[in-house]
Structure formats: structure tokens, C-alpha cells
Amino acid sequence: MPFGVRIRVSGRHACFSRPEMKTERVSYDVITPSAARGILEAIHWKPAIRWTIDRIHVLKPIRFQSIRRNEVGGKIPVSNVRAAMKAGAVHDLRLVVNDARQQRAATILVDVDYVIEAHFDLTDRAGPDDTPAKHHEMFSRRAANGQCFHQPCFGNREFPADFQLWTDPIPAHVLPGDQANKDLGWMLLDIHHTPTRGGGHVCDDGCVPHFFPARLKDGVLTVPRLDAAEVRS
Questions:
Q1: What CA–CA distance (Å, rounded) separates 174 from 59?
Q2: Cα 54 from Cα 5, distance rounded (Å)
Q3: Contacts of residue 41, Cβ cutoff 8 Å, sequence gap at least 6
Q4: Short-list 121, 125, 116, CA closest to 38
Q5: DSSP code of 228?
Q6: C-alpha torsion 170→174→176→180, nearest 10
Q7: In angstroms, rounded to a whole number, what is the distance separating the alpha carbons of residues 140 and 6?
């Protein structure tokens, strides 16, 4: 039986980049399910469980801001990493940041506040001691105490996410009328690392992105299952 949790997350800035925008970063209107899952996994994750996002409650108005950011335009080649692993030496694993730095524009979200409703299921890697009640208690304790494996973020590391376990009723949103019920277009649902049957777009590293038609209804984004009919890859 899946165990459900609620967690409230907020922050000053967020950027959930649209993949169709190649050079400049442009954020989705709200947090994506994959980013929400990443926040939960930062608090508690084990190979024995798999998180699924059910609903996202948007509490504050959707506001954008344009900024300019310094980004690194390259990365260390994989071949260099493999060579260093074989040689047992890391002296060639370096990247001159000043030479690779690029200034790019970004359209980000400002003053975000969400309540994430999610549940987890046990995977085939669960052991005899991995019970749903055990992992539910572990997550609840860690979230209540502000514990995490690494600082959760809203799309980028420089946009940290504050979180708290939420057991009270969902707060009323303050979205204006045109945002409370809004068609958000196709949104990234998740990225699956096993090729799907029947084709689908496959990234260079073998992952398969899945998208769904997102819509806010009274400030709530309902997330479909990965195998739902409306999900496309």
C-alpha cells in the first residue's frame, strides 16, 4: 500500500528550465514533477523506495523575472574521466572556468511557494526490513527536523528550497483568476532511463523524457501516472 506525504517548499527564486529553449533558460510556470521528486529524494531516498508525485498546490502568484547569469559553457570530457580512473591519477581532470564562462539571460520565477503531495512504493530492491511504515516514519522525522542528504533546490543549486513537513490543511492560494485555472502546455513529467516500447525520443545518454498536458485547476496541478494515456515521450 502506498504511503502518502505532504511537504511545503518555498524560496525566493526558482528556474525549472523548458527543454525547448536551447541557449537561454526559461522557466516553466510552476515546479515540474521531476523537480518535486528531486526535493523529496534529497530529504529521504533509498533504493528500496520510488517516489511518485500526485498533486502540486501553487500557493502564490506566478511571477517572472529576467536576470543574467554566469554559466560554464563546457564540461570535462567523459573520456578524460575514464582515462583518469584507469590511470589512478586526476591531474588531467581540470576545467579552466574563466575560459569556459559564458553570460546568459534567464527568465526565472520569483517568490515561489508550493505544497507537494506524493507517495512512495517499494521497489524490487526492497529487503525484508524495508516496510512502508518504516520509510514513512523515516521521511517524516527527517522532514520535520529539517534533515536532508543535500540541500534541495528549485532547478539550480543557487536557488535553495526551504522545506517543512506539512500536516495541516492545505492553505488557500492567492492566485489571480487567470492563473488559478490556467493551461500550462506540455510539461516535463519525468525522465526514464529505460527505453520505452514503441519508440519515443531518446536523449544522447539513453534517457527518455516524458511530457504531459499540464493544467492548473483552482491552483492545483494534478500529475498523471507515467503510464497514463495522455503522457507522451
A1: 6
A2: 10
A3: 51, 149
A4: 116
A5: -
A6: -10
A7: 9
CATH number of the domain to which 50 belongs: 3.30.70.2660
> Does 206 share its domain with 145?
yes
Q: pLDDT tens string for the chain (233 positions)?
A: 467 999 999 999 999 999 888 778 899 999 999 999 999 999 999 999 999 999 999 999 999 999 987 777 667 777 878 888 888 877 767 665 566 677 788 999 999 999 999 999 999 999 999 999 999 999 999 999 999 999 999 999 999 999 999 999 999 999 999 999 999 999 999 988 764 444 455 455 568 899 999 999 999 999 999 999 999 98
**Separation of CA 211 from chain center:** 14
- Written as nine digits, the cell of 39 is 526535493
Domain count, the chain: 2
Our CA angle for 220, 224, 227, nearest 5°, is 175
